[in-house]
Amino acid sequence: MKIAYLIIAHNNFEHLKRLIRSIQMDNAFFFIHVDQKAPPVSFDEFYHVQVLPKQYSIKWGGFSMVEATIELLKYAFHFDDFDRFVLLSGVDYPIKSNAYIEDLFEKNRNINYIDAHLMPTMDHPFDRLFCYRIECDRTTNLKSFPIKLVNKLIRGSRIRRPYPQKYQDYKPFAGSQWWSFNDAFVDYLLKFLSSNDEYITFFQHTFVPDEMFFQTIIMNSPFVRTVRNTLTYVDWELGGPPYPSLIQKIHMPLFKNDLIYANHRVSIYLFTRKFNDDSSKIINELDKIRADY
């Protein structure tokens, strides 16, 4: 079982290095996208780590997040033959032991893990998909202000665009961006992307496309019956949208259980987020829990 960890990072690099150390094994490889806006960082102390030469300046809610993810997938897929591709952020951390993680993937080679719900939902209304949007920074500055104004005018106009004709039969799905795909679906996905430019172009002008782009492809594919829930636990209750909570001591009892109730379902989770460079004490506690798995 060869695992490719695809990591999107823009800060908290000391934590990222601890994440890598925690799941580093001979059969685990790491492919890291470091945001163009981030300061230089070295990973020379690690083996099996590849930093993407192509860097995107990722803007929250924009297609640049999807672009970076696709770049990670392509790079890893052509780098070696992997059985499992796991998308993580640089502020994630495992809650199960490496043996547990490897065993779950070994026993479920045909399963693809992704959070996917038929749209619309309360968190993912149709406006995210059908309201034309131009990607821009969250911060207001001279460069982003005109774009923000145009986006606001478009939203207020109530003018909505349809799916491209080619995808009229596609049901839209949405959910958390963090997933784990097997090699068969990644092969299908990359072939789909190479021959469906219209699909990519459409999603370039949606809001938070990383929470719809991959969900919609897999749920309208021959792999739909292989889908199970995401393996990354996120607490939105303490943090509150649009920001998830930092993992705290209050979460530790949860992680002692094989199954966790979250987002109206009971599920297995292997990873959680989020942490920062000041989370070392809580991670020490988490490491003790991991050791029991």
Automatic annotation (TrEMBL):
Its main location: endoplasmic reticulum. It is found in: Endoplasmic reticulum membrane; Golgi apparatus membrane. GO terms for cellular component: membrane. It comes from the Bacteria. It is a single-pass type II membrane protein. Keywords: Disulfide bond, Endoplasmic reticulum, Glycoprotein, Glycosyltransferase, Golgi apparatus, Membrane, Metal-binding, Signal-anchor, Transferase, Transmembrane, Transmembrane helix. One of its GO terms (molecular function) is protein xylosyltransferase activity. One of its GO terms (biological process) is chondroitin sulfate proteoglycan biosynthetic process. InterPro entries: Glyco_trans_14 (IPR003406), XYLT (IPR043538). It holds the Pfam family Branch. PANTHER family: XYLOSYLTRANSFERASE OXT (PTHR46025:SF3). This is Peptide O-xylosyltransferase.
